[in-house]
Amino acid sequence: QEYTAEINAFSASSAEEVEAFRLRFLVNKGIVRSLFDEFKTVSADEKRTLGKVLNEFKQLAESKHQSLLTKLEGAADQHVGSSEDLTLPGRGFELGSRHPLLLVRKEIVDIFKKMGFIVAEGPEIEDDWHNFSALNFPEEHPARDMQDTFFVEKKEGNDIALRTHTSSVQVRMMEMGKPPFRAIMPGRVYRNEAISARAHCFFHQIEGLYVDENVSFADLKQTLYQFVQELYGEGTKVRFRPSYFPFTEPSAEMDISCSICKGDGCAMCKGSGWVEILGCGMVDPNVLENCGIDSKKYSGFAFGMGIERVTNLKYEIKDLRLFSENDIRFLKQFETEI
Ligand code: PHE
Asked: Which parts pass through the membrane (predicted)?
């Protein structure tokens, strides 16, 4: 009874006092234990009544200890709470942002959609036929070389590789359907190149294809001219230089007047005032025939541009590696873009 009264009256305001309680009652040499030791010596008759009393006493000591601990923790919480300045502004959540390459891809896609182009995609792991042969690449063409292409699997007559350009999607599209075709095909492409500020082992392209009766080089020029006016602003100049691609004839490269230095000379246009942004040309009749399309009836144009390059020009990004490093400090800068 004496101990019960002591326990009921006990209060603690510190961890040390709670610990003192535990040491007095609950440890091996504590009061509860010693009472149980004494209990062994009493007569069988007394055991019946005393046993119940002792068990209740033990429970009381244990639950008291628990409640002392709980109170102490509650007090600790309150202490922290009260020392916090509730008038401080909260910490905001970090919001993600769109990747600059996706922003530009969307912008390009939207412009061509307005001109009636649909969007199509193809696989990144391609076979030799779709990436090279159907596109009129001669057997010994250097682009098939190990140096440029990541081969996945050597197969008799039809190696499997990571596509080196999105032109492979042109082939898939033409094989699958009937003209007219009017599509743009964005995607990632791979080339076995040393990684530097200006080259990477993967990058992104947007392919364009328009095949119908009577499609001419004039259509190609007008479509691309209109595209550039929308992307870089009214009055941006374009020029076409003759070029060579196995799958287009004639072929050209298109330059635009430098949007960064406006012709005064900068690193992007190397002082020339012009920057190359895409390759294009009239689809070679061999390619049409390879895809089962009558080249006497149909003609078409195709173009392919690197999204990184267009993005560099728009945002003046000088190191390609930034696009794939996922550095938050870089990505955060595009938070305010749509
Ligand atoms: N596939 C070419 C490249 O990767 C670009 C291109 C596409 C050129 C379509 C002409 C027509 O360089």
From this structure: none
57 lines ligand 1 (CB under 6 A): no
> 249 labelled as ligand-binding?
yes
Cβ–ligand 1 distance for 303 under 6 Å, the answer: yes
Mean pLDDT value of segment 251-272: 83
304 CA distance to ligand 1 middle (Å): 4
State in Å: Cα 74 to ligand 1 middle: 70
Protein residue with least CA distance to atom 2, ligand 1: 304
- Which residue's alpha carbon is at the smallest distance from atom 4 of ligand 1? 165
pLDDT, tens digit (0-9, with 9 covering 90-100), for 175-215? 999 999 999 999 999 999 999 988 899 999 999 999 999 99
Closest to 174 in 3D by CA, of 165, 183, 162, 186: 183
Q: Which of 148, 165, 204, 288 to mutate to test the pocket of ligand 1 (most atoms within 8 A of CB)?
A: 165
The mean pLDDT value of the chain amounts to 91
How sure is the predictor about 86, in pLDDT bands with cuts at 50, 70 and 90? confident
